[in-house]
Amino acid sequence: MRYLNEGVQMRNKSSSGGKTYDLVSDADLDSEKAIGEYLGNLFPHHELLGEEDLDGDVNAEHLWVIDPLDGTNNYAHEIPHFAVSIAHYHLGKPIVGVVFNPARNDLFTAAEQQGAFRNGERVRVCDSTSFAQTLVGCGFYYDRGAMMRSTLHAVEDFFAHDIHGIRRFGTASLDLCHVGCGHYGAFFEYQLSPWDFAAGRLFVEEAGGRVTDGRGDPLPLEMSSVVASNGKLHETAIEITAKHHPPREGDDV
User: CB–CB of 151/158 below 8 Å?
Assistant: First the structure.
């Protein structure tokens, strides 16, 4: 928040000189450093995986997955919709998740078999059984080619199910929390990194929802498509996202 209020220079992550929309700042780097040092002092034998400089072993018994500033493009344009996301995985399974938007002082927490909470109050996914009763959230990866077109085709199919509307807020961790709080019936994005969804995934599940990849398979702790829903709408959501899913390495094209 100090950087946001006093000003911070944004930089492209790419050093190739080509177009890129993937930004980074000292706020990202300093936030990750602060979180990493804090967790490292508390748990010196745990692994730390983060978006910027932390490359912990995803197969470790204890792993912390950290997004120090999710929604960097919002942050760059002073839109107060961004978050810090931290999750603890034990033997490959999410145990604790925290997503915090400091601009709104909004804190989302979840712990295995203990429920999901927004600012201390328990939340649940919506009860909708039809997409005609819901909003749907989506995200776009930085790719402006085939993946963007796949996303737009899926959006068109969701509209064919008479959804109330599409929302694209640009911060996946908070989008997942919107599913858990019952604001969205579903959310999808065709490419997210583990730090984008590690905490939000647990939040949705502890709120009574379901999270898979875009083809309905279990969500891995690696770059993946993501679909989250209230559970009742999940199969319909997967029919749409799988239909337009970009090919993965090894797929028959």
Answer: no
